[in-house]
Amino acid sequence: MPENEEKISNANFAKIKSKIKQIISKNDVAATDYYADFLVYPSIEIYDEENLDAGLQPISIISGEFTLFVKQFSTNNQFGSITVKFKGSGKDKSEAIKNGILKINSNNKDFQIFLNSVKSKIINYYQNNCSLIIAEADKLNASNLYEKAIIQLISIPSGISKCDLEINRKIVQYYKNYSNAVCEKNMMIANGYFSEQNFSKTLEVLRTINPESKCKNNALSLMKKIESKIDAKEKEIFDLMMKVYNDQVALEKMKINSIKEIAMAYYQNQPETKINIIK
Asked: Which of 43, 63, 254, 268 could form a disulfide with 276 if both were Cys (CB 3.0 to 4.6 A apart)?
């Protein structure tokens, strides 16, 4: 990291994030799932700064370059970058940067050309490497890193590779392994709440147990024990849970939602990408 890197204010951090979202959404990227495993992050270089005495209040004028990078989160591979120049002014450098960021045109056709090019690269990457990606996911699964194995495959958009059927089969397999790995721990927690006669918490934990996991029978047994001990609102939840155990369509829907939740939780728990500002 450059020695002259400068920290950015929270306000400007928010403005930069907002500008990136504008650029992405206006170029039809946010509407696709091609970027599920990809990060779009910026770097800002200030190469000229001038302070003018404008009477009562000095003015800071800056010139710089705003660069967007796209990289794959799981592999750290770079898929491209684009740089645009900008100028800004304000009572101090921080305000001048904010002003300059606001002036960046998110409708700039260069952004559209860049993001379309990146999207093509990503599609080609998945088309040409799906077998390799599955092999890497299998290694993660064998190492009991089930969540990472699921993420590895769920990030591949459907319909763009020859591996779709194999990918879907593997995701279901990894999810079952993940469910078996966590269900015993969750059953212990649920039984603990039951022994404390905290039936609401017992029900809450039982909801996390996959009806196709090895804990199915133990979970059903505990559910029967609390059925008469919960209130009317909780009984509605209980009935929906029982439907999942007995209805294949409901079970498949639950499975899909659970897999999506695993992916969302994984990405949300990752540290936020740092924004570099270089003098």
From this structure: 43
How many Å separate Cα 60 from the centre of its chain?
A: 37
Q: How is the chain split among helix, strand and coil, in percent rounded to 5?
A: 55, 15, 25
Give the integer Cα–Cα distance in Å for 68 and 81: 5
First-to-last alpha carbon distance for the chain, in angstroms, is 13
3 SS3 class? coil
Place of tokens 């009562």: 56
State residue 261's pLDDT score. 82
- Chain centroid to CA 1: 25
pTM: 0.69
Positive or negative torsion for Cα 125, 127, 130, 132: negative
> CA-CA distances (angstroms) from residue 113 to 81, 118, 127, 199?
11, 9, 21, 57
Copy the structure tokens of residue 100. 């300059």
pLDDT-flagged residues of the chain (< 50) = 1-6, 31-34, 273-277, 279
CB-CB contact of 146 with 177 (8 Å) = yes
Buried b (16+ CB within 10 A) or exposed e, 137-163: bbebbeeebbbbbbbbbbbbbeebbeb
Residue 215 in tokens: 């804990």
Tokens of 10: 């929270």
SS3 49: strand
Three-state secondary structure call for residue 25: helix
User: Greatest CA separation found in the chain?
Assistant: 80
Tokens of 8: 């950015």
* 276-278 vs 38-52, strand pairing mode: parallel
Half-sphere exposure of 62 (CA within 13 A, CB side): 27
Residues 169-212: tens digit of each pLDDT: 999 999 999 999 999 999 999 999 999 999 999 999 999 899 98
- Number of residues that make up the chain: 279
